[in-house]
Amino acid sequence: MKQLDLQVVQQARNWLEQGHAVWLCTVLSTFGSAPRAPGAMLVALSSGDSCGSLSGGCVEEDFLERVQNAGFDTCNQIVRYGEGGLAPTRALPCGGVLDVLVEYLQPGEVVQRLLGQVEQALGGGELLIREVPLGEGVSRCRPASMSEAKIQRSAEQVSIRIGAVLRVVLAGWSPVAEFCAGFAVALGYEVIVCDPRAEAIAEVKVPGVQALEILPARFIAEQGAHSATAILALTHDPRLDDPTLIEAVRTEAFYIGAMGSQRTSAKRLERLARVGGLSPEDMARIHAPIGLQLGSKAPAEIALATLADVLRVANGIERGAL
Fold first, then answer.
1. At 273, which helix (H) or strand (E)?
2. C-alpha dihedral (203, 237, 186, 1), degrees to nearest 10
3. What is the C-alpha to C-alpha distance for residues 205 and 203, in angstroms, rounded to an integer?
4. CB atoms within 10 A of CB 158
5. Where is the XdhC Rossmann domain (predicted)?
6. Helix (H, G, I), strand (E, B), or coil: what is residue 71?
7. Measuring CA to CA, how many Å separate 299 from each of 53, 179, 261?
């Protein structure tokens, strides 16, 4: 199933090709209870037809009613739903607050080219920042990195990081990997487990997880890894972990991690430099020990610390800001 935001962009392009102007909306921030995260998208016609979601119900209904009644200026603007927001809807039933970027896009080659870039990024292509000027003006895209914040705002423009749904590649199946898989699926990530052992792959029973009987390093070498990929080596087995890490640093993966103590990690890095020929720059990309340092001991705790660190990096949060 295609991610919802990809469907939104594709629907927007289809409507524009048919000669319709569209309203493209992006959640910028949420406070309190809010079911969709920053970056979530919705596109609508002035007729009220729509694709996507901002909140799962009440916000969409109000927004579409306003669109049909010409309740918005035809320019790029930020609107607020919830306390202190649009009148008369000053409070949402859930008690949350949403800030939403609303763009009015008219048919044209420039807009189609821009949305084509966004579609490619959401499909796993180049990671982009979409810069949207507030008021009049045309947005543009530029290359981005996962270290940049997902949403940035100023008085003049909004910057939104655009990329594929996060993918987690688990190199080897283990108790920690099992919990990582479950947490990652719950977060909406694409999860792939690679393990050459048939008996290990047979144990993968987490719904929504793709299990492949293949050496992780071979999978990475053949398939690569786009810039929204996290590669996690969680077996403690150098025969699996070391080749995985050697291949991982050759990709655009935004997070590469290996489980182990400080002592084990130091030995691994020395070995990777000596045997694998990894440079200091390569090794600096490897999170080892993996995850946030929460004093984790049990597999579930280690998995929680690992996915929390993946989420931190994905959201462009410096470790020192925690």
1. helix 262-274
2. -70
3. 6
4. 21
5. 168-310
6. coil
7. 35, 7, 14
Report domain extents, the chain: 4-162, 167-315
Supply φ then ψ for residue 76, to 5 degrees: -80, 130
Distance CA 233, CA 239 (A): 11
User: Mean pLDDT for each 10-residue chunk of the chain (322 residues)?
Assistant: 80 97 92 70 94 80 90 91 63 68 95 94 85 92 86 94 88 95 90 95 94 96 90 90 95 93 90 90 93 92 96 86 76
b/e code 245-257 from CB counts within 10 Å (16+ = b): bbbbbebebbbbb
State the distance between the two ends of the chain, measured CA to CA, in whole angstroms.
34
C-alpha–C-alpha distance, residues 163 and 224, integer Å? 16
Residue 63's nearest CA partner among 32, 41, 31 is 41
